[in-house]
Amino acid sequence: MADRLLTVNEVAERLGTGLRFPRRLIEERRITFVKVGRHVRIPESAVEEYVTAHTVAPIVLRPASAYSYRRAA
Question: Which domain holds residue 19?
Fold first, then answer.
């Protein structure tokens, strides 16, 4: 089954951004899109791929040892 095609407004809403951001992604060819006549649509999977590709994992810090701190005199 084919992906659902989203409007630019729907993509902006899903990403939690303004309308200009998905339009800029389209203009800079940073996201897959489909031209339907003069309308532009973005496949749902393209939005998911974009989010996955730009997701940054948190840094996991080692817990500090109780004796690693110096005591003030």
Answer: 5-54
Residue (of 8, 9, 13) closest to 26 by Cα position: 8
Task: Please answer whether residues 34 and 40 qualify as being in contact, where contact means their C-beta atoms are separated by less than 8 angstroms.
Answer: yes
Q: How many CB atoms lie within 10 A of CB 49?
A: 13
Are 33 and 23 contacting, i.e. CB atoms less than 8 angstroms apart?
Answer: no
pLDDT in tens, 23-47: 999 999 999 999 999 999 999 999 9
Q: Are 9 and 19 spatial neighbours (Cβ–Cβ below 8 Å)?
A: yes
User: Nearest Cα to 5, choosing from 29, 52, 37?
Assistant: 37
**Is residue 28 included in any domain, yes or no?**
yes
Please state the pTM of the whole predicted model. Answer: 0.76
With respect to residue 61, please indicate whether it lies within any of the assigned structural domains: no
73 falls within a domain: no
Whether 65 is in a domain gets the answer: no
